[in-house]
Amino acid sequence: MNVSFTKSGMHVMITGGSGLIGRYLTSLLLENGYNVSHLSRKQDQFGKVRVYRWDPEKGILDPVALSGVDYIVHLAGANIGEKSWTAGRMEEIVRSRVDSAKLLHKTVTENNISLRGFISASATGYYGALTSEHIYTEDDSPAGDFLGTTCRLWEEAAGMFADSGIRTVKIRTGVVMERSDSALARMLVPARFGLFPILGGGKQYMPWIHISDLCSIYLKVIRDDNMSGSWNAVAPEHVTHRQFMSTLASAMGRKGFHPPVPGFLLKSALGSMADVVLKGSRVSAEKILKAGFRFEYGSLTHALDKALGKE
After folding, report:
1. Which runs of E-coded beta strand occur in 22-140?
2. pLDDT given at position 226
3. Any bridge partners for residue 118, and if so which?
4. Cα–Cα distance between 147 and 80 in angstroms, integer?
5. CA dihedral sign of residues 267, 277, 188, 84
6. Structural domains of the chain sorted by starting position, each given as residue range(s) with its CATH number in brackets
7. What's 156's DSSP letter?
8. Which of 24, 45, 276, 291 is the most buried (most CB within 10 A)?
9. What is the DSSP letter of 274?
10. pLDDT digits over 44-78, tens only?
11. Could you tell me if 296 and 210 are in contact, meaning their C-beta atoms sit under 8 angstroms apart?
């Protein structure tokens, strides 16, 4: 049974609540009558919710933080684009996701905390950094590259909650459209000077989603007891990198200069991390649509207009 609009007043704990998605999701949940708290390794800047400190690396989490919590939304994890992918950084990216989920599960099970649901972030990187004609669905297998392996291990860690009989959902997220603290924000730096560079061949697809739609998916997942397993969180409109940059130029009212940036230059500068922007395939939104979700920002033009403050 769909239980939409019946769960306000329940307690949602968010890890990584001070990040981009966490801030927007916190506001949406508060607006809809939920009690919200955060788990954070540092002083949370949000200011509207109670913050509990934890340290997944040291295995520190006071069970009191989870007392009375109905849902955990697990967003914590090292930013994949923040630093170069050295061997140590790659290990940190994986461990920050996996070890934190393991600590949450250990605390929940050892203290008999009755969760109604565990919702974990994941990413469309599950399908790998590659460009193909295949349209990936939730039934596809994970890729064997670094992104695919990271997401597989991330989701397997979340799967411990499912094995414990707790409804578990994994949200495979595309590139998030939001003006600050996002991939779009980085694109806007050269765009302000009329530069809209084309990375590599420009034929790689960019699965994307507006921040408002992404947070609405999380809200739907909390409300709908029928939802479990993996779900793609991407808009239904497929665009290539070249099409994205052209649409961005139009949204900014610029004719735009599109200088090519050869892939070998990016690989020389970024190493294997360059594959994140040089490769990409289409990802299906069909499953979430069939579950009754309706995108407010289903077209890239609409999403960019909103992100740029044009509406």
Report:
1. 35-40, 50-55, 60-61, 71-74, 117-123, 135-136
2. 95
3. 72, 168
4. 9
5. negative
6. 11-174+210-234+284-289 (3.40.50.720)
7. H
8. 276
9. G
10. 556 679 999 999 999 999 999 999 999 999 999 99
11. yes
Burial of residue 270, with CB atoms counted within 10 A of its CB: 0-12 exposed, 13-18 middle, 19 or more buried:
middle
Mean pLDDT for the stretch of residues 30-36: 95
Alpha carbon distance 126, 8 (integer Å) = 32
Q: What's the rounded Cα separation, in Å, for the pair 286 and 122?
A: 18
What is the phi/psi pair of residue 47, to 5°?
85, -10
**CA–CA gap between residue 244 and residue 293 (Å, rounded):** 24
CA distance linking residue 223 with residue 5, whole number of Å? 7
Q: Which of 156, 133, 187 has its CA nearest to residue 308?
A: 187
Query: Whole-angstrom Cα distance, residue 156 to residue 99?
Result: 11
Question: What are the pLDDT digits (tens) for 173-213?
Answer: 999 999 887 888 889 999 989 999 999 999 999 999 999 99
The 3-state DSSP class for residue 74 equals strand
Q: What confidence category does residue 2 fall into, taking pLDDT thresholds of 50, 70 and 90?
A: very low
